[in-house]
What we know:
mainly alpha, elongated
Amino acid sequence: xxxxxxxxxxxxxxxxxxxxxxxxxxxxxxxxxxxxxxxxxxxxxxxxxxxxxxxxxxxxxxxxxxxxxxxxxxxxxxxxxxxxxxxxxxxxxxxxxxxxxxxxxxxxxxxxxxxxxxxxxxxxxxxxxxxxxxxxxxxxxxxxxxxxxxxxxxxxxxxxxxxxxxxxxxxxxxxxxx
Length: 178
């Protein structure tokens, strides 16, 4: 069936699977019911499928879903900060990241950052309390003088585990998040 759907899509058909109320005199649905009943009751009907484990079907569906999600993620024009931390959907799904308000704020820049408050005119100045630059995730992670000690601890931990410095947001989130 998948091949037939793909063939129709290549011919610019739009194929959608949706729920339709049964036995409501909808021609296509009634026809599908009739054909399904014939297929299950006919002794002459030949099996046109190979039996595969349910786990294989679920795995394939998940992979297809992740591919579609990745395409949509790549096409988005918003969420640049989050994308800098998690460019690959598959990697984020498989990661056991313990989410909290600090991590959420860092990877989205939505929350308790001066740049966020400034964006919504809650405060008049986005500048960090260090007075150097706007208080963004990148500034706090990589530049803020007031967090120099924490940055050094992070840098040393990454180097101890064999990582290289300087590091990208993506590497920080995906390789060194513990």
